[in-house]
Backbone:
């Protein structure tokens, strides 16, 4: 198998202020499939084009934000390898076994205040892509027609160390970097475990464990436009877009869920291979890297995180 | 690195009847970049979005068809591993060193009459994607705006053995299969070394070393339409499409180059991961697998190969 | 007002074999809005982006086909003018008053065996585009997202005389013609009352009163692709497409409703103005005029009418 | 003919600071066709999909802005009618005969400080759409692939009187209005002579004869995205977009030419008919009417005119 080790980002647990309202939002507007309740305060959802049991968990809480983000490994050997390689970093590890359909998830508390999980065992979902004489979809996609949970941008301190952890422990590749003005460090780093431009990105930020945004994959620019029409119709607050990123070339809209979490609908982007040269951005071109068309970051984009 | 071993299809050498006319066709219409002449009878080209020195070589010959198709490996270790694992199959191997910009290519004569190469060393092209504060392209794409050489469908006998070679020696994954009517074998098999639905497909066919088609990646359905407009304008013979495949979900047009080689412009398709279940097609649904909309294969599609 | 007289095709009554199944088809798949029953054997529908009470009536009958097609006039003065100018042609006229929401429709039995109506009075529909701080749609479009009833291709004898009637009586413009081989007549003529490439086309055909196809407007090529995906999923029989017409430049799919009526989803096409030169097609290029990409008409297209 | 009188906006003369640089910009980037020099200080261009001799004239001057905007009439009878009906308004009229390929243009100095022309006679361009077995285009479109000059938004005082002039003298229809806060007047009015959402819009503004923007038609949302990619590549200053308007539903980007004139690439929008109800916007929803997605006007949009 040419694709080994860590395969992709596969699970995210979000904090939302009102569970029922949020489930409706992610189902009706984003177009996720409802998988079911998880205890009293959580709800599982998934993209219609994902095979695995679920990929998004919403948890009702007093403040928005992210609980954890997890990566699917090809096999348990990979999981063991991650555990072993984490020794060098000494990040606290614990096991989570309460995600229905999932085997044990190994959780690591990394130095930017985020919790990153790794698992290899997960059941197939009831609603999943057809595989026997398959139609491209079984039930018509709805809402923004999000295919799948794609990536997240995690903010916090100690970014350099965390980048090293993703590279050395998780075996991921740095695809693009945004240098600080003195070029001695990175403002932001994009990392991939497959051919996506990124599965996760790490933003240098003083507060630990902050979520800048997480992202759903759409099928193309036309679906980005359709998503914007849906946002406009239902008065969903758009932060920026429709536009393109210079970084990853992805086409995008940033908007806010009812709890204030920044969500992205994302499409396109190049096909990454590990023999590609690193793409590098200088600090004075940060605006262009993120907001490729207008070349200007808005203040809200830099300061509002959950 | 999570993506290891064989990375992708990276080089194809085609036979064409008139070199000059063919270079114009692949440059002006398909939108490839001219890299330069190679001896008296060959010409090198590449997609505007490829980093490597070149990906397509046209060779003037008395009959159309394919000389060989090669795969890029991450490193020389992979190449050595392929050589070692080929021992079990005992396929003839020889070395090619005449492709400018490329290190040694290990060529294997596999049992369907095709020559498959593996290499890890290749220089970056002069015209390649930007990497320092990169624009999404440097020079405006032209013609059909082919991004890159994507895959080929190789026809010949002994398909099952060749599939095993791609799986065991090259480490590739079977993504989809089309069973024979008795379900004891495959009419066609699709194989991937990365997250594409396929890098190469193998079609059972009595004549050895035959090319059914080879394919260029476009950016989406809208570019498929644009490509069709260009074909119509310049009276390029369309075999089928615009349409979608059931297999891989790719959006597509099949057409013929001036020498009669079947070429495809291809876009979309799902993102494959090795933990996805195998997609299976029964013989009675072959039409739908290939021609997803009309569900009927045309006679030409089944019989015209080069 | 610069747009006067006959404004557009506005109403069509179709014969279908099973009313309930057909209502489901036009609602669920084409995406029309249900307006309501009309007596025991008819059902009214409309496109989500139409203001008028309804635009499509399905009537249960023993054989498929078209009952009549009607045009909206700006005012009653236009209707009177049509009645007066019809005198020269002497086509039988009668009044229809049983279409809910519509004033009197003046029906004319023209020489190709078709019944063409004209009306100016029609109530606004309950479900219609918003007009006060309007969203681009109120309720999300569904299915193939047909905006509106666009045009029909009516087949029958005496085409030349009927063309004259549309020009002289209805004040419509000939936008394109397909000449017979001897160039003494037309195989097909396209006529417009506004800036569309056509509101109606007339095909020379031995049998009177035959429907070749009628058409719904989609928003673009991407929606043509989405419509094709829906057709594939629900095994709706596609006649041809996705493709483009040379005539009108429209992007299109022809398919069949459950009764065997040929339906078209149509998008794009140029903006016609009456100062544009006539577009002319010679008989030997008919294939390209209709099937712009493949340049070949299929047999079914030429022989299957209802 | 159902489409009579004034047909469409057909000619605009712009002031630019550097003629050569501007010709390159409108040719290379917007994708217009060069028609030729006009005297020492002017240059004629056209959209590739326009039949008429030219539609855009650039004039080198000390300050940017608009000289005049002209409308094509179906016939000289319409021109005479406009002259006659202008008597009631008493706007100064003069004749222009120096536009190559055009007959006499009747120019009217209307009360918002703008000059509006009317003409019916114009020669066909050398480069124009094919009409004999036509391809959808003859020479491949380039750059942003602007089809045609579409409309302009003219700013100045006495808006209400000017609206009346366009309605009573030119016979145009008001398609949408944006009311002032007290609902006693209009901030902006959109007017159409055909089925476009607008050919011209009038903005209430203290300074006379000001140009807010003028607009080129693109073929759809995908071309809007492509245009944005071109703007990004060549560092063309984007004012707003890609986005959609609530008014007209058009998909759009506003950007600046090298002289500071605001230009728009515009696609889509509904098909207007004179029997459609007026679309009305209240002052508190102006942001949504113009910037449908973000619902917020930027300061520059309200204050920068030429």
Residues:
């Amino acid at each position: 198998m040419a694709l080994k080790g860590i395969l992709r980002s596969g699970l995210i647990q979000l904090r939302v202020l009102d569970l029922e309202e949020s489930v409706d939002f992610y189902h009706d507007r984003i177009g996720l499939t409802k998988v079911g309740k998880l205890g009293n305060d959580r709800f599982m959802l998934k993209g219609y084009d994902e095979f695995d049991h679920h990929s998004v968990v919403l948890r009702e809480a007093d403040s928005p934000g992210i609980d954890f983000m997890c990566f699917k490994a090809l096999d348990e050997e990979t999981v063991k390898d991650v555990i072993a390689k984490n020794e060098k970093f000494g990040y606290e590890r614990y096991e989570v076994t309460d995600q229905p359909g999932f085997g044990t998830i190994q959780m690591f508390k990394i130095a930017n205040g985020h919790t990153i999980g790794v698992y290899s065992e997960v059941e197939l979902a009831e609603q999943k892509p057809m595989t026997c004489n398959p139609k491209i979809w079984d039930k018509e996609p709805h809402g923004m027609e999000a295919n799948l949970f794609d990536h997240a941008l995690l903010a916090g301190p100690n970014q350099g160390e965390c980048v090293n952890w993703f590279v050395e422990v998780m075996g991921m590749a740095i695809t693009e970097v945004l240098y600080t003005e003195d070029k001695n460090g990175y403002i932001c780093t994009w990392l991939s475990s497959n051919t996506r431009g990124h599965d996760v990105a790490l933003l240098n930020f003083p507060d630990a464990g902050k979520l800048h945004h997480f992202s759903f994959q759409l099928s193309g620019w036309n679906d980005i436009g359709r998503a914007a029409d849906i946002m406009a119709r239902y008065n969903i607050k758009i932060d920026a877009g429709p536009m393109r990123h210079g970084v990853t070339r992805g086409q995008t809209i940033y908007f806010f869920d009812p709890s204030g979490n920044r969500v992205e609908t994302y499409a396109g982007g190049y096909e990454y291979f590990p023999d590609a040269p690193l793409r590098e951005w200088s600090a004075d071109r940060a605006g262009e890297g993120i907001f490729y068309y207008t070349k200007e970051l808005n203040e809200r984009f830099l300061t509002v995180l959950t």
Remarks:
- Chain C has one domain: 6-125+145-303.
- The radius of gyration of chain C is 18 Å.
- Chain C touches chain B at residues 221-222, 225, 228-229, 231-232, 238, 241-244, 246, 251, 253, 288, 292-295 (CB under 8 Å).
